[in-house]
Amino acid sequence: MPVVSMTVNGKAVSADVDPRTLLVQYLRENLRLTGTHVGCDTSQCGACVVHVNGAAIKSCTALAVALEGANVTTIEGLAQGGKLHPMQEAFRENHGLQCGFCTPGMIMSAVDIVNRKGNKLEEKLIREELEGNICRCTGYHNIVKAISAGAEAMGG
Amino acid sequence: MYPFTYHQPENARKAATVAGKLEDAKFLAGGMTLLPTMKQRLASPANLVDLAKCDDLRGIEVAARSVTIGAMTRHVDVANSKELQEAIPALADLAGMIGDPAVRNRGTIGGSLANNDPAADYPAAALALGATIVTNKRKIEAEQYFTGLFETALEDGEVITKVVFPIPAKAGYEKFRNPASRYAIVGVFVAKKGSEVRVAVTGAGSSGVFRATKIEAALTAKFSSKSLEGVKMPAEGLNSDIHADAEYRAHLITVMAKRATDKAK
Fold this sequence. Notes:
heterodimer; A: alpha+beta; Ubiquitin-like (UB roll); DNA polymerase, domain 1; B: alpha+beta; Uridine Diphospho-n-acetylenolpyruvylglucosamine Reductase, domain 3; Enolase-like, domain 1; 5-stranded antiparallel beta sheet; 4-stranded antiparallel beta sheet; 11 helices; 14 strands; globular
């Protein structure tokens, strides 16, 4: 089996993987980073969003073996020194979740939106940019509020 | 997913050589369709030739009369290219409407054209703009390239290297999206070059992308959405499914064509 090496949440990791292994399987099953969820498994729902080399991707639709040398950040990599990331804190503060299943993907997409679009986000833009993340509980209202607040907080 | 052997050549020539030597090989571009298809076991290639490391297949070059886009250029790069936004704004606009941000970070123009999904966006642009699809073996005019549902003129082991789009005087794209997948239920690309107007429709046709000659004739007379008042597209040959029946799609073609014409620049 091919060996794949990558950096996950700042840590160098390496493993023999079956070429069929999806990035999300590698993260959850090999590395036990179970914060990244599998929802639809068809790249529509966004529960599995992680950052690869700084860009948000759906980890259910990428092969681990193809990501040799990549720099991967998962939901577990956001909090620093026991302190929640401002976007995580904003989701908590604004109750941007109910069951929480979609939340890791929502937060990873939210951070990606801020990285691309800046700290002042219009509601319409947030809703458009979130089109690849599906929540079946909340109706999105508090998620949008959380992202707006988190974006501002990320600006410091 | 059924097992396969993974190959990752570092340029297009090597990719074609590797694929040519292997039994039952498939090229992997961004994987936004092929990987889900393999997960559902609807595709099970014995060999997967990943083009991700072929840097020679990436990039956007704008010349005086045409734009050349490398096959492995991602949708996000096409959407964000300042030069392309100047040269063919409708094409950059179209790329920004594909799927969602995470999909645009992986999906590629070559992958989309090679797959030729009947609801994909790029085929409409390629056909309306009169693009040339360049492979490792030859050049194929868009008119000859799209041959049916998920069918193209590509042969086994043939890989798209780049796509050349002539720069139109004006062009616009609009689509009516499926709310879940963001694929086009109907998408219409209009392009005007000199006195010629070409209009391509995706998402609607039961054999994939096609040119709407009735709308072309109306827009050739005068390039304005007003020319399309009362133009009725026939429902024959259009898809009916749970999202929209053929008559509704026929109606949407004219509506999307009007909006695309209004947007055209």
